Amino acid sequence: MLNAKWFLQNKETLISSWRKRNFSFNFQNLEDLEAQRLKLIEKSEQIQARRNAIAKEIGILKSQKKDSQHLIEESNLIKENLPEILLELSALEEKISEILSFLPNALEEIVPEGEDENANVEIKKWGTPRQFSFTPKAHNELGVELSQMDFETAATVSGSRFVYLKGDLAKLERSLKNFMLEHNIEEGYEEVSPPYLVNAQSFFGTGQLPKFEGDFFKTTDGRYLIPTSEISLTNMVSGKILQESELPIRMTAATPCFRSEAGSAGRDTTGMIRQHQFLKVELVTIASETDSKNEHEKMLVTAESILQKLELPYRVVLLCGGDIGATAQKTYDIEVWVPSQGKYREISSVSNTGSFQARRMQARYKKAGEKDTTFVHTLNGSSLAVGRTIVAILENYQNEDGSITVPTVLQNFMGKFVIKPL
């Protein structure tokens, strides 16, 4: 359960930060509810203290063989009324928790103001977009002409926003997954194979629920298919108290991800850029509050260097307050060059959520030599979305005859230099 105390203590900071998100909140309502809660707690404690005192008084009177009927009646009255007060307290705490569960994270001061992606700030560019001597084709056109990308059959079997990859393109997907995992392991991240189905509490812990309920696929027994392995990995520390010496914990995983794309009607309706099921290699770090900013930069470099090894042009942008996710306090997006669209498209988001998720998960650590606990900081990033990396490779490495040159770093994984039609 989320605690109102932290939000009220940080009221001014949150109000200032949320202005960048174009988000407003009535703190007076929360203050009133919290005051009611504290009064009910005080009242219930006084009543319980009186009940305990009565029990002692009754015992004394009985030992003295004196009449205690009036105290017994008072005790019975307390027994009848106390459950109602505790029930009222529980309902009030649930109401407060529900309100708090919808509130976004505070932003770092460096996050720029702005309403949407047009206000994001470009941090850097790497590589130069290729100049083609012919008109470059889109990835889905290339894949279909190779007879190795089948949207029609997938639509028949599963519906829109699904695809079959065959032959060398299926192998390319597998090669990219293995290449990315090996790269991340070399960078100090431990490989984990996590569950793909998790419970609602885990989704709440990382901030997907209750606000974004409609974005996910839910099973009949109340579990959810993961939209990212961030949820499975981050919740590995849920409810735990770690030692500072155990931090940072760095993890990487390759999993299928499932998203309903409920809010993306009309966007990227063809091709592999926005699908209901896709493969993604994820990075997650559990860090101390003093190390999280450095770990954020390390995670960004780890994701960037994959694109550098693949020799794919990209840029890094710092998201503005109006475009950043609700759980993040600071986010970098990495955008890869897509020739057919003539622009950069997101291929990774690397976020520091600070203590936001930890407070929801009750994940803490003990600093060396201290008795009190501190909330851990959690970070996550795509490293990378494999489907979008396939998009970038097909389009940037295409040849005039429709074949695809395999990036040098993947040639050993693929066992070939060129992808040709089946």
Look up the CATH topology of the largest domain.
BirA Bifunctional Protein, domain 2
Average residue pLDDT: 94
By CATH, the architecture of the largest domain is named 2-Layer Sandwich
Q: By CATH's scheme, which homologous superfamily of the largest domain applies?
A: Bira Bifunctional Protein, Domain 2
Please report the first level of CATH classification, the CATH class of the largest domain. Answer: Alpha Beta
Q: Write down the domain tally.
A: 2
How many helical elements? 13
Q: Give the strand line-up of the largest sheet.
A: 1-10-11-12-15-9-8-4
SSE string? HHHHEHEHEHEEHEHEEEHEEEHEEEHEHE
What does this structure look like?
The protein has 422 residues and is α+β, with helices and mostly antiparallel strands. The protein folds into two domains: 4-101, Serine-tRNA synthetase, tRNA binding domain (Helix Hairpins); 117-419, BirA Bifunctional Protein, domain 2. It is built from 13 helices and 17 strands. The strands form five sheets. An eight-stranded mixed β-sheet has the order 1-10-11-12-15-9-8-4. The longest helix has 37 residues, at 27-63. It is elongated, with a radius of gyration of 27 Å. The model has no long low-confidence stretch (mean pLDDT 94).
